[in-house]
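Dear colleague,

Thank you for sharing your sequence with our group. We've completed the structure prediction you requested, and as agreed, I am returning the results in plain text so they can be pasted directly into your records. Please verify that the sequence below matches your submission; if there's any discrepancy, let me know and we will rerun it promptly.
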Amino acid sequence: MEAIRTYLTKHAPGDSLIVSEPEKELKYIVVIPSYLETRLEESLVSLFDASLPTMPVEIIVVINWPEDESGENIRLSRETLISAREWARQHSSEKKQFHVIDAGFIPRKKAGVGYARKTGLDEAVRRFLRAGQHNGILISFDADTRCETNYLEAIENHFLLNPYADGCSIYFEHPMKGDAYSPEVYRAIVQYELHMRCYLHAIRHSGFPNAFYTVGSAFAVRANSYCRQGGMNTRKAGEDFYFLQKFFDLGNFTDLLSTRVVPSPRPSLRVPFGTGKAIDQLLKSRDSLKSYNPETYSILAGFFALAPKMYEQIKNSGNTDLKGLHPCLQEYLTELDFEEEILEIYRNSGSQDTFVKRVHRYFNMFRILKFAKHARNTFPDLPVALCAKAIMETTGMAGSKEMSEMDMLLEFRRKDKGISVQQ
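Please find the predicted C-alpha cells below.
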C-alpha cells in the first residue's frame, strides 16, 4: 500500500470525490471520462450487462467540461450528470456499483480527456486505499464504447493467469457496418483500423518486442504499477499512448484476447489527433487514408538486428559503427545524438542481453513513431491498402491482390487473435 499512499500524497492530494465507502473486497474499477456524450447510457448498459467477476466492481464516470464552455453545453453536461446519477442509483448493486463524478469547470489549460481520465483513475486509487486493496485493477473505458458480456470476467482471469503482468491491452474491434453511421464513416474506420493493425504488425515483425495497441478505451493496469509509474498524464490527446509507453518499457505488459471492446467510429473535433480526428479528416478530404511506407519497417528491422552487434563493437573497440544503416535512419540517429546515448547504454549494461533490452527501452514506441514521421521525407506515405498488402506479404500472412480493405482488416484481426484462416 506504500506505493499507493506515496503516489496520492505526491501526485493526487485532496479529498475523495465519492462519499460512500467501497466494498472491502473491491478489486476492479472501470473509469469512463465523459464530455458532451450523447450515448453514455449505452456504454453503461453494456457494462451493466457484463457478467460479474468473483470480486466486486465499481464503474466511475467523470462528467467534465472546461471553465469557458458555452452556456448551452454546460446545460447539456448538467443534464447528463443528473440523468447519469439517477441511472447509477437505479442500477448499482453490492457487487457492481456505479458512481458519477462532477468534474465541471476545469481550467482551459488542463481541460481534456487526459485530465478527466486521470481524475477518475486517481479517485479509483483512493477507493482501493479505502478498501484496503493493494492489488486492485484499473480499467480504462470510454463513454462511446461497448464491451462483450464476458469483459469483466476475462479481465479477472487474465490477471490471475498473469500474476506478474503490470497491465494489458484489451482486444478491440471498431464496427465496420450498421445503421448508426453513414457508409462513409464505416469505410473510414475500416481504413483507420487497418492502418493501426498494419503499423503494429510491421513493428513487431521488425524485431521490436514491446509493441502493443494503445487505445484509451481498451487497457487495464494494476493500481500499484499505476502509482509507481507516476499515474496518468493530462494531455488533451494521446494520453493513452504516452501513459502506456511507460508500462511497455517495463517488459511485463500483455495482450488480453479473450474478450472484445467496441470503440465508436464517429468523427470528432474535440481532440487535436486520434481516431475521431482522423475520421473527420478522411470524411472531409474524401480521399483514401495513407499509411507509413513499408520501407520504414525494413529499415527498423536492420537497426534492431544490429543491436547485439553494437554491444560487441563497443566491447572490442570502444565505439560502434552505424554506417551500415540506411542514410535516412542515420540522419535521425544523429538528431538523437545516438552515438553518445549508445555508449551510455553500454556503460550501464552488464551483458549483451541487458544491453539489447536497454536499446529497446531507449528506441521505444515513441521514438519509432518519430522515426516513421521523419522517414516520410525519404519514403512518402502510401495508400493503406497498398501498405497492408505489402505487410501481409512480408509477415507471411494469407492474402491476395483481390482482397478488399475490409477483407484485409479481417485477416489482421484473425492474426491478432491467433485464429488461422481455415477457422
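Summary note from our side: The chain is about 50% helix and 15% strand.

Kind regards,
the structure core
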